[in-house]
Amino acid sequence: MRPSPSRLLNILVPIKRAVDYAVKIRVNPQQTGIDTNVKHSMNPFDEIAVEEAVRLRDRLKTEVKQIKTVSIGPPKSLDVLRQALAMGADSAIHVEVPESSPAPEPLAVAKALQAIIAREKEPVDMVILGKQAIDDDSGVTGQMLAGLLGWSQATFASKVEVDVSKGEVTVTREIDGGGEEIRCKLPVIITTDLRLNEPRYASLPNIMKAKKKPVEKLNAEALGVDFTPQLKTLKISEPPKRVGGGKVTSVQELVAKLKEAGITAV
C-alpha cells in the first residue's frame, strides 16, 4: 500500500558502518572474511545520502519536517549515527546486531527498513541511501526496498529536485554513456551516486549538539525480521601476488621468452 505524501516531507536515510575507504583490505587468517580489526567509518555513498537530505531541507526550507537516519549493525554503529546527526539529521534509530554476528544481507536489511517505515508515526515520504556499500558492493538494498514497499525508485542519482506541492521528484541518474532524467511520484526510494554532492565536515558545535539528539534502539526481534544469513561463504583468499617483470635486449630475446612461456602468435 502506498501512503499519500504529506505536505511536509519526512526523510529517512539508512547508513552503514563499513571499513574505511582508505584502509588496505586484507583477508583474515581463518579465510572466512576480511580483517575487520581496522578503522571503520560511514559508507561514503551513505554520507552523500545524508548530505543530500540536509541540502534538500536547506532548499525547501519549511517543507521538510524531519530527517531521520537509521543504521543496522553492531554497537559501534552508533558512531556513524552520531556523525549523521552532526551533519544535520534530527534523530536516529539504531537496530543493534551482536558484534559477533555476520552483517545482515541486503534482503534482510530491506525488510528491516520496511518494518521501520511501517512503524513510524509520521509517514515516510522519501528514503535516500547510498547506491552500494563499499564492503560488499551488492548495490541492491534500495531496489529491494522499493520492491517490498511498491514505491517509485530512482537509482544512481546525480541530481535531485523535489516539488512538494505536486508530490513529485525529478532525478537525473547516471547511465552508461550519459545521464537520464526521470520523474517519480512520492513516496520514493533514491540511491545516491558519487557526483550528487560533496559531503560537509561536521562543525564542533554540531558534533556537541549531536550528542543530545535522540537515538532509538531496536533489535531484529522488535522488527520481526530474521537476520540469519541465507548465504554461506566457503572461503576467501587474496589474489596471487604479481611477480616482477624482466628486461630483454632484443626482439629475438623477447620472442624466445614468449615461446618459453608457451605464448605463440595467432
From TrEMBL:
GO cellular component terms listed in the entry, alphabetical order: mitochondrial matrix
CDD domains listed in its UniProt record: ETF_beta
Cofactor field: AMP; FAD
GO annotation terms (biological process): amino acid catabolic process; fatty acid beta-oxidation using acyl-CoA dehydrogenase
Entry note: cofactor: Binds 1 AMP per subunit.
Subcellular location: Mitochondrion matrix
Keywords assigned: Electron transport, Mitochondrion, Transport
Domain Electron transfer flavoprotein alpha/beta-subunit N-terminal: 32-227
InterPro entries for this protein: ET-Flavoprotein_bsu_CS, ETF_a/b_N, ETF_b, ETF_beta_N, Rossmann-like_a/b/a_fold
Keyword Mitochondrion belongs to the record: yes
GO molecular function: electron transfer activity
Quaternary structure, from the entry: Heterodimer of an alpha and a beta subunit.
Sequence similarity: Belongs to the ETF beta-subunit/FixA family.
Role of this protein: The electron transfer flavoprotein serves as a specific electron acceptor for several dehydrogenases, including five acyl-CoA dehydrogenases, glutaryl-CoA and sarcosine dehydrogenase. It transfers the electrons to the main mitochondrial respiratory chain via ETF-ubiquinone oxidoreductase (ETF dehydrogenase).
PANTHER family, per database record: ELECTRON TRANSFER FLAVOPROTEIN BETA-SUBUNIT, ELECTRON TRANSFER FLAVOPROTEIN SUBUNIT BETA
Protein name: Probable electron transfer flavoprotein subunit beta
Originating species: Coprinopsis marcescibilis (Agaric fungus)
